Amino acid sequence: DQQVKQNSPSLSVQEGRISILNCDYTNSMFDYFLWYKKYPAEGPTFLISISSIKDKNEDGRFTVFLNKSAKHLSLHIVPSQPGDSAVYFCAARSSNTGKLIFGQGTTLQVKP
Amino acid sequence: KAGVTQTPRYLIKTRGQQVTLSCSPISGHRSVSWYQQTPGQGLQFLFEYFSETQRNKGNFPGRFSGRQFSNSRSEMNVSTLELGDSALYLCASSLEGGGSLAEQYFGPGTRLTVT
Q: Is B25 an interface residue toward A (CB < 8 Å)?
């Protein structure tokens, strides 16, 4: 049972435009959500996070939105740059268990 | 401060063999988690160790085991390897882990190929 789902395996965007990566979850006990970026041959690196008590968190070009009623979160990258091309994973955790559950990942390609 | 290191980076084994992977966390980090990454499955949680004790466990068979040493270094062992065990194995460390909100820092991974 996939508790965290990223339904789009890939996304292609033109440089300078907005990239929107989506993530859905099923477990209402999740109270902390994170996005990681992964380049080939490297481990994932933390990008941005959001607590369930918020609906938006912004860090530079990256904004994460959380819609608890829809059990949906999204990552917006504006403006997109070619260096943003990577695999993006969303992850969720409940403070009960502490386990970090990842989605399958979305490969973002930003074209110059 | 040095990051999370994993050894070896690449490994080729044959079915039925066993393998041990090693992870050294960031200095001062006490929690080490292991993940398996395969195409289409994302990162799947294997287990987490904190202060030499397994604190969390994912849904993997008993062939997958681990341990943590007093210096927080961790090893993961897979016995009786199967072709489906071919994957990138990632280790992540954090200060506290578990219910803490501390972010995890990942190592580069060990690419295991089972033939």
A: no
State how far Cα B7 lies from the chain centre.
11
B48 shares contact with chain A (CB less than 8 Å): yes
Please tell me the distance from the alpha carbon of residue B30 to that of residue B71, in angstroms, as a whole number.
Answer: 8
Determine whether the interchain pair A95/B58 forms a contact, defined as Cβ–Cβ distance below 8 Å.
Answer: no
More confident residue, A42 or B24: B24
Q: Which of A3-12, A71-80, A87-96 has the lowest mean pLDDT?
A: A87-96
Burial class (CB within 10 angstroms; exposed 0-12, middle 13-18, buried 19+) of B80:
exposed
Which of B37, B56, B59 should be substituted to probe chain A, the one whose Cβ sees the most A Cβ atoms within 10 Å? B37
- Is A103 in contact with A91 (CB distance < 8 Å)? yes
At residue B26 the predicted structure's pLDDT band, cuts being 50, 70 and 90, is very high
Q: A102 touching B, CB under 8 A?
A: yes
State the Cα–Cα distance between residues B24 and B14, nearest whole angstrom: 26
Distance, in Å, from the CA atom of A23 to the CA atom of A73, rounded to the nearest integer, reads: 5
Q: Do B41 and A32 touch (CB under 8 A)?
A: no
| Residues in chain A, total | 112
Distances (CA, A) of A78 to A45, A105, B44, B102: 19, 19, 29, 26
Number of C-beta neighbours around residue B111 at 10 A:
16
Say whether A99 and B105 touch across the interface (CB within 8 A). Answer: no
